[in-house]
């Protein structure tokens, strides 16, 4: 599932490609009511956690959540628009570019009050300048739930997914099963500051880069086009720091990865 940095990259891309001008919006598949925004000027494209919002002139907002399978495919505009391939939920066409959205969990037109309702359920987003880490800390320090579950809860911190969760906890030597209330304020502060920095790297480069230069050697990454990770998708392999075996288990519906030796 895309993590928050991917949504912020999309928000910025759509602002550059379509912002400040009218956008032809349609639903080749027919499952999205595009008429409410078709031909309107896209004012602002932004993101909060894993939610993308296209704010159009005079009120309507397109709300997108990609879920596990949603993707945007961009194309350069030519005289003839490309035939939609597969189930295109939403097509946006601007002066120079177009993009097709397929397979999202959510693609709907809502109003600003409904945007507020969506955002009210979300925790602070490390990539937003208005993020308030104290909100997340208040939830974590009162909770008996494992920190590895709390980090995946979008109501605690918005935008963290499975890779950042495992890697952040490794970088701070915190066992994913430690209860939230057993995490110290100093540990949380350090982890939050690190998370903001890591997600900004992800936002700039489009890849999750988490391994420090001094550890960036040894076995290759789990996928050829991805940077190395400390623990993510490395179950059974040797820890890049202590050499012990990396473990995995299902926590909050997804596999968490950690080094029992390094993380307490
Ligand atoms: Zn280790």
Automatic annotation (TrEMBL):
Family: Belongs to the FPG family.
Taxonomy, superkingdom: Bacteria
Protein name: Endonuclease 8 1
Keyword match Hydrolase: yes
GO biological process annotation, one example: base-excision repair
Tagged with keyword Nucleotidyltransferase: no
Assigned EC number: 4.2.99.18
One GO molecular-function entry: class I DNA-(apurinic or apyrimidinic site) endonuclease activity
Swiss-Prot/TrEMBL keywords: DNA damage, DNA repair, DNA-binding, Endonuclease, Glycosidase, Hydrolase, Lyase, Metal-binding, Multifunctional enzyme, Nuclease, Zinc, Zinc-finger
Cofactor: Zn(2+)
Residue span(s) of domain FPG-type: 230-264
Catalytic activity: 2'-deoxyribonucleotide-(2'-deoxyribose 5'-phosphate)-2'-deoxyribonucleotide-DNA = a 3'-end 2'-deoxyribonucleotide-(2,3-dehydro-2,3-deoxyribose 5'-phosphate)-DNA + a 5'-end 5'-phospho-2'-deoxyribonucleoside-DNA + H(+)
Regions annotated as coiled coil: none
């Amino acid at each position: 599932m895309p993590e928050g940095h991917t949504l912020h990259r999309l928000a910025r891309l759509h602002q550059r490609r379509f912002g400040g001008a009218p956008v032809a919006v349609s639903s080749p598949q027919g499952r999205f009511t595009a008429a409410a925004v078709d031909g309107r000027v896209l004012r602002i494209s932004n993101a909060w956690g894993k939610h993308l919002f296209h704010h159009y002139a005079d009120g309507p907002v397109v709300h997108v959540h990609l879920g596990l399978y949603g993707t945007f495919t961009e194309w350069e505009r030519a005289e003839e628009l490309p035939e939609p391939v597969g189930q295109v939920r939403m097509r946006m066409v601007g002066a120079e570019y177009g993009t097709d959205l397929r397979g999202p969990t959510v693609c709907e037109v809502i109003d600003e009050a409904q945007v507020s309702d969506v955002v009210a359920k979300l925790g602070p987003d490390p990539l937003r300048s208005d993020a308030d880490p104290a909100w997340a800390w208040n939830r974590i320090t009162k909770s008996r739930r494992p920190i590895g579950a709390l980090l995946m809860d979008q109501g605690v911190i918005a935008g963290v997914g499975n890779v950042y969760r495992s890697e952040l906890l490794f970088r701070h030597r915190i066992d994913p099963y430690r209860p939230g209330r057993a995490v110290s304020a100093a540990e949380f502060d350090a982890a939050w500051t690190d998370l903001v920095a890591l997600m900004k790297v992800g936002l700039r480069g489009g890849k999750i880069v988490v391994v420090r230069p001094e550890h960036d050697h040894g076995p290759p990454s789990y996928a050829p086009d991805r940077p190395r990770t400390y623990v993510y998708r490395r179950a059974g392999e040797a820890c890049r720091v202590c050499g012990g075996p990396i473990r995995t288990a299902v926590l909050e519906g997804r596999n968490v990865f950690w080094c029992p030796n390094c993380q307490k």
